[in-house]
Design a protein that fits this description.
Rossmann fold, binds 2'-monophosphoadenosine-5'-diphosphate, 2 domains, 6-stranded mixed β-sheet, 10 helices, globular
Length: 273
C-alpha cells in the first residue's frame, strides 16, 4: 500500500516540503507520497482525526501547530521535550511519536563546515519558536554565551530564561545596539522573518568581519540582504535553505529508516527558487 505523509500548518500553499520529499521518494523508487494539508489554528484535533482515518504514515508540523501538537503525541523524544515543540511525527497504527529535527537540522550545516561551537559567543537575532530550537542546539554544543537581540524585549527575556536553564551565559540587546556589537561574536544568527521576500536586514552589518559566521534561517530569497552584506564583509555565510534541507533529511530518515538522498533533495529544492 502506498504510504502517505503530510505537512500540516497554515499557511501551507507555498511549502517546499512536498517537492523535497516527493523527490526523495522518487529517487529511491519508494511507493510513498507527500502532501500539504492545511489545518487552520484551532482545528488541529479535527485535522489529526481525518489524517489518522487515511492512515497517514507521518507528519511534518509547521506554523502554527508546532507547540500545540505536543499534547496530541503518545510519546515525544528528548529534543521535543526540551524545546516544547515537535516538527516530525510518526504514526504507528494511531500511536503518534514526536521528534524535533529543527535542532539537528540547524547544527548540520555548521558541522559540515567543521566550525567549532564550543566556548564561542553567539548573537541570536529573534526570540520566537525558531530561536528557541537554536538556543537548545547551541546549548548542546556548549557555546559560552548567547546575546539575544529582539524587537520585543519581553520575548527576549523569556528566551534568556530558557537559555539560563540550559546553563548558558546570556545578555539582552536591542536591534540597534546588536548591529554595533555583531562583529564581536563568532556566530550571528537571524531567526526573525526579516528579509523574507523583502529587501531588509534585521540588524546593521557594519561591524561584521571575516571572523564571523553569519547564519540566516530565512531561505526566500536565497541571498537575503543579510547574506549579501555579510559576504561583502568577508564573513562565512550559512544559507537558510541548508537548514531547511537538513531538517527534511532527518525527518525522512526517521520515517523511512533509510539514508536521505541529499543531492536529489537539494537539486529539487534549489530548482524551486
Ligand atoms: P518563528 O516560529 O518562525 O520563530 P515567531 O515565533 O512568530 O516565528 O517569531 C518571529 C520572530 O521574528 C520574532 O523574534 C519577531 O520579533 P517580536 O518578538 O518582536 O515579534 C521577529 N520579527 C518579525 N517581524 C519583525 C520585524 N519587522 N522587525 C523585527 N523583528 C521581527
Amino acid at each position: 500500500m502506498t504510504k502517505t505523509y503530510a505537512v500540516i500548518g497554515d499557511p501551507i500553499d507555498h511549502s517546499l516540503s512536498p517537492a523535497i520529499h516527493n523527490a526523495a521518494f522518487a529517487f529511491l523508487g519508494m511507493d510513498c507520497a507527500y502532501i500539504a494539508y492545511k489545518i487552520p489554528k484551532g482545528e488541529l484535533k479535527e485535522g489529526l482525526e481525518s489524517l489518522k482515518k487515511i492512515q497517514i504514515a507521518g507528519l511534518n508540523v509547521t506554523i502554527p501547530h508546532k507547540v500545540e501538537m505536543m499534547q496530541f503525541l503518545n510519546s515525544a523524544d528528548n529534543d521535543c521535550n526540551l524545546i516544547g515543540a515537535t516538527n516530525t511525527v510518526v504514526n504507528e497504527n494511531g500511536f503518534l511519536k514526536g521528534y524535533n529535527t529543527d535542532l539537528g537540522g540547524f547544527l548540520e550545516p555548521i558541522k559540515k563546515r567543521n566550525l567549532e561551537c564550543k566556548d564561542t559567543k553567539v548573537l541570536l537575532v529573534g526570540a520566537g519558536g525558531a530561536a528557541r530550537a537554536i538556543v537548545a542546539a547551541f546549548a548542546r554544543e556548549k557555546v559560552h554565551k548567547i546575546t539575544v537581540a529582539n524587537r520585543t524585549k519581553e520575548r527576549a527575556q523569556d528566551l534568556i530564561k530558557f537559555a539560563n536553564k540550559l546553563g548558558l551565559e546570556t545578555e539582552y540587546t536591542d536591534l540597534v545596539s546588536a548591529g554595533n556589537v555583531a562583529g564581536n561574536h563568532n556566530f550571528i544568527v537571524n531567526a526573525t522573518s526579516v528579509g523574507m521576500r523583502e529587501n531588509a536586514c534585521p540588524i546593521s552589518t557594519r561591524s561584521i568581519n571575516s571572523n564571523c559566521v553569519v547564519y540566516d534561517i530565512v531561505y526566500i530569497p536565497v541571498n537575503t540582504e543579510l547574506i549579501v552584506q555579510s559576504k561583502e564583509r568577508g564573513a562565512t555565510v550559512i544559507y537558510g535553505w541548508e537548514m531547511l534541507l537538513a531538517q527534511a533529511a532527518l525527518s525522512f530518515e526517521i520515517w523511512t529508516g533509510r539514508k536521505a538522498p541529499y543531492d536529489a533533495m537539494k537539486l529539487t529544492l534549489l530548482g524551486r527558487f
